[in-house]
Automatic annotation (TrEMBL):
The chain crosses the membrane at residues 47-68, 74-92, 104-122, 128-147. Keywords: Membrane, Transmembrane, Transmembrane helix. It is found in: Membrane. One of its GO terms (cellular component) is membrane. Pfam families: ICMT (PF04140). The keyword Membrane applies. PANTHER family: BLL3993 PROTEIN (PTHR43847). This is Steroid 5-alpha reductase C-terminal domain-containing protein. GO terms for molecular function: protein C-terminal S-isoprenylcysteine carboxyl O-methyltransferase activity. It comes from Pandoraea pulmonicola. It is a multi-pass membrane protein.
Length: 242
C-alpha cells in the first residue's frame, strides 16, 4: 500500500514568482469624519462668544484706565479691572466641556453675572471706608478667587457645565468658593465707591449669583459624583449660612 502524502504549498513558495505569493492583508486607512453641521454651529458660537467677551473686557479696561489716570489713588478701580480680567480671561482659554446647560435662564443669568462690570459706575462715589481698606478687602477677595480657580484648573467656565467634579483645594470647604471671592471683592469696591447706582448694580448682581448657583446645582444634580460631593460639603458659599 502506498501512503498518501499531503501537498504542502509552503514548500514551493520560494520557487514561485512574487506575483503568486499571497500578499499580507493591509487594513484600509481610517478616514477622519468631518464635523457635522451642529458641531460647526456650536464651534462658531463658542468662538464668537469668546471674542465678544474679550472685546467687552478690553473696552471696560480702557475706560477704567482713563478714570484711574485722573485719580491714581483709586486702587480699588484697578482691582475691579483685575477681578474682571481674572474671570473673563480664564473663561476665554478654558476647555470646552462635553455637556453644558444652554437653557435661556441659566445662560442669561451667567452672562449678566459675569459681565456686570459693564454696568458699574466708575466715576468716584462716596467713600464709606478709606481707599486703602477697600483695596485690602478687594485684594483678599481676589486672592481667594485665585485659590479657588487654581483648584478648578481648566474646569472653570461661565455657562453651567459638567467639567468634572472637583472636591479638593477650596472646594473642601464650600461648594462654590469662587462666588465667596466675588462677594468679598465686590464689597471692597462698593464701600469705597458708594452710590445709588452701584448699590442697585451690586444688589442685582447678588441676586443673579444666587440664581446662578442654584442653576448650576440643578444642572449637576444628575451626576452621582456631585451627589456624593454635596453630601460631604454641606454649604454652598458661606459656612453655616448658605
Amino acid at each position: 500500500m502506498h501512503s498518501e502524502k499531503k501537498f504542502d504549498a509552503s514548500s514551493i513558495e520560494g520557487w514561485l514568482p512574487d506575483a503568486y505569493v499571497a500578499a499580507p492583508i493591509v487594513p484600509p486607512l481610517a478616514v477622519p469624519s468631518l464635523p457635522d453641521r451642529r458641531s460647526l454651529r456650536e464651534m462658531a458660537v463658542e468662538v464668537s462668544v469668546r471674542l465678544a467677551g474679550g472685546l467687552a473686557l478690553g473696552a471696560f479696561a480702557f475706560v477704567a484706565w482713563l478714570q484711574w489716570s485722573a485719580a491714581p489713588e483709586r486702587i480699588t478701580l484697578l482691582l475691579l479691572v483685575a477681578t474682571s480680567s481674572l474671570t473673563v480671561g480664564l473663561a476665554l482659554f478654558t476647555r470646552v466641556p462635553a455637556k453644558r446647560d444652554w437653557r435661556l435662564v441659566p445662560v442669561v443669568v451667567s452672562v449678566c453675572g459675569t459681565f456686570y462690570f459693564l454696568a458699574v459706575r466708575l466715576e468716584p462715589g462716596m467713600r464709606l471706608i478709606p481707599e486703602n481698606v477697600g483695596a485690602f478687602v478687594c485684594g483678599v477677595g481676589i486672592l481667594w478667587q485665585l485659590y479657588a480657580k487654581a483648584s478648578l484648573r481648566r474646569s472653570f467656565g461661565i455657562v453651567p457645565a459638567n467639567r468634572g467634579i472637583v472636591s479638593s483645594g477650596a472646594y473642601r470647604w464650600v461648594r462654590h468658593p469662587i462666588y465667596l471671592g466675588y462677594v468679598i471683592a465686590d464689597m471692597g469696591f462698593l464701600l469705597t465707591n458708594f452710590g445709588a447706582w452701584n448699590v442697585t448694580v451690586y444688589g442685582g448682581l447678588l441676586a443673579l449669583q444666587v440664581i446662578r448657583i442654584l442653576q448650576e446645582e440643578r444642572f449637576l444634580a444628575s451626576d452621582p459624583a456631585y451627589g456624593e460631593y454635596r453630601a460631604k460639603v454641606r454649604y454652598r458659599v458661606l459656612p453655616g449660612l448658605f
